[in-house]
Amino acid sequence: MEFLDLPPMLGAAGTVRLPGSKSISNRVLLLAALAEGETEIRDLLLSDDVERMLDALQTLGVCWERNGDSLDYRVRGVGGPFPVKHAELFLGNAGTAFRPLTAALALSGGEYRLSGVPRMHERPIGDLVDALRALGADIMCTANEGYPPLHLRPASIRSGGVVRVRGDVSSQFLTALLMALPLTGVETTVEVVGELISKPYIRITLELMARFGVQVEQHGWERFVVPGGARYRSPGTVFVEGDASSASYFLAAGAIGGGPLRVEGVGRASIQGDVRFAEALEQLGARITMGDNWIEAAAPAEGGLKAFDLDLNHIPDAAMTLAVAALFADGPCRLRNIASWRVKETDRIAAMAIELRKVGAQIEEGEDYLVVTPPARLQPAAIDTYDDHRMAMCFSLVTLGGCRLRINDPRCVNKTFPGYFDVFGQVARAVPVVAIDGPSASGKGTVAARVAEALGWHCLDSGSLYRLVALAAMRAGIALDDEAGVAAIAADLPARFENGLILLAGEDVSDAIRSETCSVGASKVAVLGQVREALLDRQRDYRIGPGLVAEGRDIGSVVFPDAGVKVFLTASAESRAERRYKQLMEKGMPANIQSLLKDLQERDARDAARPVAPLVKLPDAVLLDTTERSVDEAVAFVLDLVRAGG
Ligand SMILES: Nc1ncnc2c1ncn2[C@@H]1O[C@H](COP(=O)(O)OP(=O)(O)O)[C@@H](O)[C@H]1O
Ligand SMILES: Nc1ccn([C@@H]2O[C@H](COP(=O)(O)OP(=O)(O)O)[C@@H](O)[C@H]2O)c(=O)n1
Question: Which residues bind ATP per the record (predicted)?
């Protein structure tokens, strides 16, 4: 499976220009298609769900064109039902395309087949189908009653009167019906059965219908009257607001990661209900400021985020972000009235519970609620995303707790926000890493320790891990070429670094691992792929704020490929042998310069030739040859690179 490894983050701040709203994009496209006249749509969202709608409209005989590579589209409305009367539409997992098109096509007098991905076929549509059947539509659920795929056939529509639709499973059923009803040309009253959920989405629908010339008469949230003789007319140009649900990740990032973090494209003047996510965040203590077209979030003035108990029915999508923000609160947090999560891209309550537990949270899961108790310390984990863009996006916030995280199948974000992880990476500051790689005795350990001290950062001597593995394997009587045996030792190495000492099962082995036997042994176990793999996470755990200086052979290539500064430190073999000789003499350890040189050349050759993680100078690493340079000069050189920002 494809995955994305996110580094631990120190904080987040900056400005993000949001992609267009999915809800608005797909509604505006459908309204523009059904309207009389041409509509210019500016800042349309470019994403999978919108592609599904654009493809479907084209198949149905609606002409549209994109202005070059811009986000501006021109749609030539058909001024009534769709002209193409026979079509098969594949709509992926796009609920915002599937539901409204079902209603519009049911009233278009043609024969249509609508299908999607397997998950789409598990998402209920029965309430909408029932309402449309009550109007006379001929709709068959070809697999399971109440679920896509659907087969629509021409039928005489009994327009007018009252049609009832359930509002307590998905508000998209009501949206779909309202948007399609003007096609009948007759006044129709829609009565909502059950408590309407996600009301703000209905507000978006009504607002956009009004912009296209159809004023729905609203009686509370129970009755809506679509007037007779109403026809959609293009308003000319429509600007798509930024996506308020997508804004939630960045606002939460500002609240968790310091901020201030500003999102542009939504604000006080927004028609999207999810802007109220900002209010929820405010209740957690975040500092929120707002303009007409922007919102900014920063961490509480004092302390961390506060625990919460909130009814989130009005912001079901953005509420997922709060479930992850809860990991940073000062106590258990309750998310209430979120039953609609169960019929979204995945069963989001179940998925959220499983994944939040992976990072250490305690979870209580109910039919329509979730209680999240944050862990004392977040744990790195591989997060499954269930083909759900929001799972992927909201979990990225975990990294703001200084915790690295793997996101499986990260491309699911394409549904609504294709560039999400790049944008997140621009505002979130990764814990910085200086990677120093190079051959034996080139001075990596010495330089790394000095640089780390000067910066006040942590230091990792990765070679000592390979040395420890060799020592532990030799002591356990395991042959150094027994890959599985040595890897098992590496996976469970009882080693600690404390007060400048290196301890193996509590015993000080700082000098023992520097012996020639351990040097040769380390070089041998280092060629084993499984051993390297077993030590990978252990090395990555050293990436802790404010920063890390790590040295070895594959730090810049494998362990921390995203390191901001990469140095390839080297010196001639003769001077390295001489340095190592002096070093051993100072420690009172026996040595012979000729055999040191030979041994060092052999190890260099082994390190450079091995198939896994060989020692190479990467194109993005800066070469530092210290044959003619002192330690002080080498340290100053690296510090200059760090200060210059890599
Ligand atoms: N630029 C340099 N000039 C002279 N001696 C150096 C230089 N860099 C390191 N040394 C010395 O060489 C020895 C080996 O360095 P070390 O940091 O252990 O290398 P590595 O970690 O690359 O094996 C140490 O005694 C160190 O003081
Ligand atoms: N990141 C690393 C670090 C060390 N090693 C191996 O571990 C051995 C000991 O590493 P070290 O850095 O302590 O070795 P010296 O450079 O001090 O001789 C090296 O000879 C390498 O083969 C590695 O393969 N990858």
Answer: 438-446
Tell which CATH architecture fits domain 3-18+242-429: Alpha-beta prism (3.65)
Is the pLDDT reported for residue 646 higher than 70? no
Active-site choice (43, 317, 384, 607): 317
**Rounded (10°) CA dihedral 156, 160, 162, 163:** 40
CB-CB contact of 540 with 561 (8 Å): no
Residue 446 C-alpha to ligand 1 middle, in angstroms? Answer: 6
Whole-angstrom distance, CA of residue 379 vs CA of residue 540? 13
Instruction: Tell me if 158 is assigned to a ligand binding site.
Output: no
CA 79 → CA 38, 155, 165, 231, 241, distances in Å?
10, 20, 26, 8, 25
Which ranges in the chain are annotated with CATH 3.40.50.300? 433-643
Q: Average of pLDDT values for 351-364? A: 98
User: For the domain bounded by 22-239, which CATH number is listed?
Assistant: 3.65.10.10
537 is catalytic: no
Q: Which residues contact 563 (CB under 8 A, 6 or more apart)?
A: 432, 433, 434, 435, 550, 555, 556
The interface predicted TM-score (ipTM) is 0.94
pTM of the predicted protein model = 0.90
Output the ligand 1 site: residues, CB below 6 A.
Answer: 440-446, 579-580, 583, 626, 629-631, 634
Substitution candidate for ligand 2 out of 523, 528, 542, 579 with most atoms within 8 A of CB: 523
Give tens-digit pLDDT for 562-592. Answer: 999 999 999 999 999 999 999 889 988 888 9
Ligand 2 atom nearest residue 603's Cα: 20
Chain Cα centroid distance, residue 567: 30
- Between 3.40.720.10, 3.40.50.300, 3.30.465.60, 3.40.630.30, what CATH number should domain 433-643 receive? 3.40.50.300
| Partners of 165 in the β-ladder | 192
Which tens digit of pLDDT belongs to each residue from 217-271?
999 999 999 999 999 999 999 999 999 999 999 999 999 999 999 999 999 999 9
Residue 79: what are its φ and ψ, rounded to 5°? Answer: 60, 45
DSSP state of 122: G
Q: Is 348 annotated as a binding residue?
A: yes
Residues of the chain with CATH 3.65.10.10: 3-18+242-429, 22-239
Cα-based distances in Å from 596 to 222, 445, 568, 587: 86, 18, 22, 15
**Closest among 147, 140, 61 to 98, alpha carbons compared:** 147
Average per-residue pLDDT in the chain? 96
Give the number of other Cβ atoms within 10 Å of residue 606's Cβ.
Answer: 16
Give the pair of three-digit tokens for residue 509: 């082995």
Of 442, 538, 553, 557, best ligand 2 pocket probe by most atoms within 8 Å of the beta carbon? 553
